[in-house]
Amino acid sequence: MGRLARRIIRDGLLVTQDPSRRVLRGDLVLEDERIAEVGGHAKGDADETIDAHGGLVLPGLINAHTHVAMTLLRGAVDDLRLEDFLERTFAIDAVRGPADVRIGAELGCVELLLSGTTSFVDLYYFEDEIAQAAEATGARGFLAWVVLDEALTTQKGSPLRNCEAFIRSHRRRPRIHPLVGLMGVYVCSKETVLAAKELGEQYQLPVHLHLAETRKEIYDHERKTGQRPVEWLDQLGFFRAGDFAAHGAWLTLGEVRTLARAGVGIAHCPVSNLKLASGGVAPVPELLAEGAPVGLGTDGASTNNGLDMFAEMKAAALLHKGARWDATVLPAQQALDLATIGGARLIGMEAQLGSLEVGKLADVVVLRPDSPRLVPTTPENAVANLVYAAQGGDVRTVFVDGRAVVRDGAPTQAKLGDLLRRSAEAAHDLLRRAG
Amino acid sequence: MGRLARRIIRDGLLVTQDPSRRVLRGDLVLEDERIAEVGGHAKGDADETIDAHGGLVLPGLINAHTHVAMTLLRGAVDDLRLEDFLERTFAIDAVRGPADVRIGAELGCVELLLSGTTSFVDLYYFEDEIAQAAEATGARGFLAWVVLDEALTTQKGSPLRNCEAFIRSHRRRPRIHPLVGLMGVYVCSKETVLAAKELGEQYQLPVHLHLAETRKEIYDHERKTGQRPVEWLDQLGFFRAGDFAAHGAWLTLGEVRTLARAGVGIAHCPVSNLKLASGGVAPVPELLAEGAPVGLGTDGASTNNGLDMFAEMKAAALLHKGARWDATVLPAQQALDLATIGGARLIGMEAQLGSLEVGKLADVVVLRPDSPRLVPTTPENAVANLVYAAQGGDVRTVFVDGRAVVRDGAPTQAKLGDLLRRSAEAAHDLLRRAG
After folding, report:
1. Same domain as A108, residue A206
2. Cβ–Cβ of B372/A279 closer than 8 Å?
3. Are B62 and B347 in contact, with CB atoms under 8 Å apart?
4. For chain B: N or C, fewer Cβ within 10 A?
5. A52 shares its domain with A66
């Protein structure tokens, strides 16, 4: 091994998200794929120096629930009742092939990186294609191949075996973390649910699932089984510490305690829940109070319609204040926690990701110093500015594993013009095929 | 008079907001300060040609309620109970001088223009300073000098006479439209309210006021007068057609009808209402059904904390869907209407602003063609993309009165680096003085 590659990000305002939530002026030093120094004035040579003077520097954001390939459906299924939304989405699903997933995922990964998200959790099929997109663009993917009843899927073959095959082929790749995916209780029998759990046990991987998203899910399941979904899964012995679910918009306080006791977390998706009019609001303050891991996710581009975690942090804070009639609920620091260290804990990577601390992986975002919407920025209002004022478009430079994947607001690993042109063509073609 | 200056914006996707809400591929021709052709392929010479290929082109957005000078307070008063928020804000108010207002307003105007807003309604004092900032940066200002009881103001002299002096000195300036401002029933006696009304009648100008923003406002006024604010103002004979109020978060259906009958409109401010946990949601569908004019406003940067009308459109659509448990409420087209033609009607400028139609003033926004979050864009999803996916940072070129005030995402009438540095210093100094 040769000398370490050493990069210095000079003179930024470092929102560390360390245990004391310090905001420091100074330098951030990256050595190979790790953070080597935080704050102060770095001495010694560097292979590269990035001038961050006046700009905010933060840990790469973690999108804890999305479907990146759905970017191709942006703007195709808006303002619809859930039944109409699902009918149209399934019609498109039925004609989608691996090439559609690949190009949509590449567009989604570039959108994520350009807006400061370095890690994403994806729940979908053809996750091998999505892994390729993540590897091509430089994003860090936590990829859950979705399992559901064979009778109800558009997947070729057995979803469970597809998931296992994906895990076996992808579990040793850098920046790719296979997970077990589960669609949700509405399309999963007891046998399917338990098989997914066993797969997770066998490979020591968490299960990521949709849970308690809509009233319909709760009431249908209660009618069918006499139990609410969380109760039913709990009695099946499904939950294992480390598992995490998206949404949780319709959780009772008893269910919050069940999840917290089991060590199961929630990826809160406020924009998607609002846009689909789910009605419920995930009880984030109660989940946090009970010690459950909580992250934040954009969901897919057909229900958001962007993948911008800055916008999602703001939406989370606003939704809870509005719903509780209390402006002190979900303050800026807590919203930022959800998108960084909270998300890292949710995906079992708290020791590696989610903060700017020595020894952690160098997933780092540098914002533009010249964005009017971030003026004034001081150590005192830095966190509020990140949550309430910043936008994805303010991102200038992004590192994943110490490698620059975005420079000057442009992806380094993708030809943007070509990607956008191919994506637009693929979307047009997909919608044409779906009729 | 010489030949008209002729500009052609080539080959964009024109979201016209005309009466048929057409989305057209083609060219937009500006002649001097007016729109001369919409759609098709423009022939003839041009003094300038702007390539908009693949990009969305839309009418300049109208921010129907803000306080641009408050950008200096960004991030200074977040996550606080209303009482704590007001106490801190008033402490800062007490030490603020005209120079603070001027620099804050200039920063605010640049933030507005860079995010595609060409017209703004401002309710504040020192509106002469704000007029200078608007003129310096090229924004179109509807400026309401705020009137309230003399005993309760930090203004020097009589607020009413200050307002009148501002109207007299500024009513003939291009792109500056003085209005009569009224703070709200909580700081305005019957005499003050009626004097503001008379001032509006005398100069044939609308009154712009805060109304029905918080529960406290409603209940305090009921306790004091036996009437809710709208009822009280109505019985005083205050309302005149053309007046418009910000917020309206706590309106009954009867009050909606009172306002609509009087021809009084509402500037809906969803982000501010959520962030301050006002609890109520302005009954926008009911206001529209009753025929009241409705626009959209960001409110000030201390309660938002940005001035981005793209984000505000999305927030409006999400808030209503979430609050009503109905995903079809406030669809994308309606949200865009609020920010364009609806806002134009609200401010009495429907014949001049709010759509891309021949003869209207050339306030035009061109978005970047290369933003991943806007791919795919087609005539079918253009409106959904503007509301649910676009961000202020996607704006590339902005015209006001046919003059380019933003080019390549940078202001043409302000030195950005110098402005940001002076703004940061002024904010620091202001907060230091406020203690």
Report:
1. yes
2. no
3. yes
4. N
5. no
Q: What is the CATH number of the domain that holds A40?
A: 2.30.40.10
**Cβ within 8 Å of residue A361, ≥6 positions away:** A33, A34, A35, A352, A353, A401, A402
**CB contact at 8 A, A84 and A91:** no
Helix, strand or coil, per DSSP, at residue A365:
strand
Shortest CA distance from B375: residue in chain A: A424
Give the structural domain span for A387: 6-59+359-411
Is residue B89 within 8 angstroms of chain A, CB to CB? no
Sheet holding A176-182, edge to edge: A61-66, A117-124, A140-147, A176-182, A207-211, A244-247, A265-268, A294-296
**With the C-alpha atoms ordered B150, B156, B159, B160, is the resulting torsion angle positive or negative?**
positive
CB contact under 8 A, A388 and B305: yes
CA B379 to chain A, closest CA, distance in angstroms equals 11
Q: Considering only CA atoms, which of B149, B23, B145, B155 is closest in space to residue B90?
A: B155
Chain A touched by B376 (CB under 8 Å): yes
Same structural domain, B22 and B169:
no
In a domain, B105, yes or no: yes
Q: What is the mean pLDDT of residues B96-105?
A: 96
- The CATH number given to whatever domain includes residue B283 is 3.20.20.140
ipTM of the complex: 0.97
pLDDT, tens digit (0-9, with 9 covering 90-100), for B53-73: 989 999 999 999 999 999 999
Task: From chain B, pick out residues whose CB is under 8 angstroms from the CB of A278.
Answer: 322
Same domain, A131 and A110: yes
CA A128 to chain centre: 18
Mean pLDDT of chain B: 97
Beta-carbon pairs below 8 A across chains A and B: 219
Are the beta carbons of B393 and A388 separated by less than 8 Å? no
Collapsing DSSP to helix, strand or coil, B237 comes out as coil
B181 three-state secondary structure: strand
Tens of pLDDT, residues B258-276: 999 999 999 999 999 999 9
Please state the rounded mean pLDDT for residues B114-142: 98
Residues of chain A above pLDDT 70, percent: 100
What are the structure tokens assigned to A110, written together? 């570039």
B394 touches A: beta carbon within 8 Å? yes
**Cα first-last separation, chain B:** 56
Both A299 and A239 in a single domain?
yes
Phi, psi of A64 (to 5 degrees): -85, 0
Both tokens of A103, joined, read 């190009």
Q: Measured between beta carbons, which residues in chain B are less than 8 angstroms from residue A380?
A: 75
Residue A1 in domain:
no
| Residues A338, A198 share a domain | yes
- Whole-number pLDDT of residue B83: 87
Residues B401, B326 share a domain: no
Across A122-130, average pLDDT: 98
Separation between Cα atoms, residue B2 and residue A422, nearest integer Å: 47
Question: What is the residue type of B191?
Answer: E
Domain boundary, last residue among A324, A346, A368: A346
From chain A, the residues in CB contact with B76 under 8 A are: 381
* Same domain, yes or no: A38 and A76: no
Q: In what order do the strands lie in the sheet with B117-124?
A: B61-66, B117-124, B140-147, B176-182, B207-211, B244-247, B265-268, B294-296
> Where does the pLDDT of residue B93 fall: very low under 50, low under 70, confident under 90, or very high at 90 and above?
confident
Contact B373 A428 (CB under 8 A): no
Query: Which residue type does A8 have?
Result: I
Contact A321 B107 (CB under 8 A): no
B428 is a domain residue: no
- Nearest 5°: phi and psi at B173? -90, 145
The phi and psi torsions of B384 (rounded to 5 degrees) equal: -60, -40
Domain count, chain B: 2
pLDDT digits (tens, 9 = 90+) for B222-253: 999 999 999 999 999 999 999 999 999 999 99
In a domain, A422, yes or no: no
Among B274, B389, B424, beta carbon nearest to A75 = B389
